[in-house]
Amino acid sequence: MLRAVPIPERVQPANIHDSQMLPRLLDPENEHDYVWADSAYSDECFEDLLSLGRFESLIHEKGARNHPLSDAAKDLNRVKSAIRACVEHVFGCMTMSMGGMLTRKIGLARNGAWWGLKNLAYNFLRYLQCISHAPVVA
Question: How far is CA 65 from CA 20, 68, 69, 96, in A?
Fold first, then answer.
């Protein structure tokens, strides 16, 4: 007997921009109330959404044509980038060591399963790296 497997909520088609998924990713029960994001999320509607959910926005500032960022905003973006780099290393490892970030599966359920297994493999590799204090390459 075949059973329908629920599609993971976080896997979406490629035609949906990441910024449209922000309301679904915000968890009011999360122990931290900070939101780190790049300048694609720097619109006023995102700031309003974050303030409604009582989240603190640590979104990068965005410059505009003929209105460059001030030196203070550039320095603040640099501090935010240093923190966000830790998360980006996960994607860098998947890209460089685990066959890339492109998936060629048909259907959201298969893509969700693929990414779930890939994340599980990354977590196992990271665990081995942490307990052995030696580099582990995929």
Answer: 24, 7, 10, 34
Beta-carbon contacts of residue 63 (< 8 Å; ≥ 6 apart): 69, 73
Separation between Cα atoms, residue 68 and residue 72, nearest integer Å: 11
Q: How confident is the model at residue 136 (pLDDT cuts 50, 70, 90)?
A: low
Amino acid at 120: L
What CA–CA distance (Å, rounded) separates 30 from 33? Answer: 7
Contacts of 116 (CB under 8 A, 6+ apart): 8
Whether the CB-CB separation of 28 and 53 falls below 8 Å is answered with yes
For 14-56, the pLDDT digits (tens) are 788 877 877 777 777 777 788 888 887 777 888 888 888 888 8
Reduced to 3 states, what is the DSSP secondary structure of residue 136?
A: coil
Pairing relationship of beta strands 56-59 and 34-37 according to DSSP bridges: parallel
* Closest among 23, 31, 77 to 50, alpha carbons compared: 23
Q: State residue 138's pLDDT score.
A: 63
